[in-house]
Amino acid sequence: MGEPKHQDSPISARDRILDAAEIVFADDGFSGAGMKAIALRAEVAQGLLHYHFTNKEGLYAAVIERRSGIINADRLDRLERVDPSAPDAVQQILRALMEPPLGPKGGGRAYARILAGLTVGDARDAELVRLHYDATAARFIDALRRALPGATQADISWGYNLAIGTLVAAVSNSGRSERLGGLDRADTSRRDVLTTLVTYVEGGIRALTSEHPKSP
């Protein structure tokens, strides 16, 4: 149907398609997102989407693969620097888990909406979570078990998954918490959100494992 508006290399066009698809999938969901709308937003010919990703399922999977890869690489890099024997090891592990999605590489509210859909989605979404998140999750669960030696695998697994749900709600940043708390959303920094998340999730995990919060 005509040439792409931008005569870029395939790599830059591919990235532009993924950026556009992330937003369209976030706004319209998988079912509502259309390849034409994604192509228009990316300013490329629709045929280029099929060239790079075959179909909508392939494009959706590529969006998840790219963003999860960026986030999880940052998470694991941070986790490697955590001392599991430190008094504040649980806090350090949770910060390593939660800070990357809150940062500029995390995809912001758009990817938070996609991730929220993944966590409650169908068999396709469950498989994408397994492929792109389970290995990293296992590393963090193992780190938490070493930091909380009395905890069971089941307790830590529950705590981890509840932490992810809390994180998704925070990254979506709807402003409801500030509104209900009578706060100015503009005055709430990413660092404030991270500290609140870590404090809340650490307390929950320690309660699940019959541990009591300890000061670092």
Instruction: Give the overall average pLDDT.
Output: 87
Tell me, what is the CATH class of the largest domain?
Mainly Alpha
Total E-strand runs: 0
* Structural class based on helices, strands and sheet pairing: mainly alpha
Contiguous runs where pLDDT drops below 50 for at least 5 residues: 1-7
The helix/strand order is HHHHHHHHHH
Q: What is the terminal-to-terminal distance? A: 62 Å
Helix tally equals 10
The CATH architecture assignment of the largest domain turns out to be: Orthogonal Bundle
Helix content: over 70%
Q: What does the largest sheet look like? A: none
For the CA atoms, what is the radius of gyration? 19 Å
Shape: globular
Query: How large is the share of residues in beta strands?
Result: under 5%
* CATH H-level superfamily of the largest domain: Tetracycline Repressor, domain 2
**Topology-level CATH name of the largest domain:** Tetracycline Repressor, domain 2
**How many structural domains are formed by the residues?**
2
What does this structure look like?
This protein is mostly helical and 216 residues long. The protein has two domains: 1-54, Orthogonal Bundle (Arc Repressor Mutant, subunit A), CATH 1.10.10; 69-208, Tetracycline Repressor, domain 2. The protein contains ten helices and no strands. The chain has helices at residues 10-32, 35-42, 46-53, 56-80, 89-102, 108-119, 123-147, 153-172, 176-180, 190-208. The longest helix is centred in the N-terminal third of the chain and has 25 residues, at 56-80. The radius of gyration is 19 Å and the shape is globular. The model is unreliable at 1-7 (pLDDT under 50).
